[in-house]
Amino acid sequence: MLTITKTFKFNAAHRYRKLDWTDEKNLQVFGKDFKTHGHNYELGVTLAGPANTDTGFSADLADLKVVVESQVIDILDHSQIELDVAWFAERQPSSENLVLFIWQQLHGKFKGAAELANVRLYETATIYAEYDGEPGIETLLKG
User: Which domains does the chain carry?
Assistant: First the structure.
């Protein structure tokens, strides 16, 4: 299967904590990430599909850009994720949860034969999370 990936950048802040824990326990579990801090995220969105015999393209990159910007970037950029995005009201704003959120925002929203195949999110130059739809997202959200 052919794949094509487009990258996007956004900036956002977050903090890890559980509201029903004391500050001491939050600090013990989450360390310095208990404090509000930000990241310059890099998002890779991969679509997979056959190449169109007329154009040679497997995906409409203009559509990909519009969908990702409206469904992800406009929501997350310059946000404090756990405060500004309702999906995170009861979830940690971890990279793992972010890729699940992004997948849900994008899945089934692209024109043409290409389908969402992978979401990869770099939190730092050395840490990324990714999701490719397996197992089903409902299983991961229950876990």
Answer: 3-10+38-142 (3.30.479.10)
Neighbours of 55 (CB within 10 A): 8
Task: Encode pLDDT of 65-109 as tens digits.
Answer: 999 999 999 999 999 999 999 999 989 999 999 999 999 999 999
- Of the CA atoms within 13 Å of residue 118, those in its CB half-sphere come to 16
- Name the residue type at position 49: G
Token couple for 128: 């990324």
Cβ-contact 45, 5 below 8 angstroms: yes
Query: Which segments within 1-143 are labelled E, that is strand?
Result: 3-14, 37-48, 79-80, 115-124, 127-131
**How would you class 9 by CB atoms within 10 Å of its CB: exposed for 0-12, middle for 13-18, buried for 19 or more?**
exposed
pTM of the model: 0.93
d(CA 32, CA 68): 31
Q: Which two three-digit tokens encode residue 65?
A: 């850009």
The answer to whether the bond into 135 is cis (omega within 30° of 0) is yes
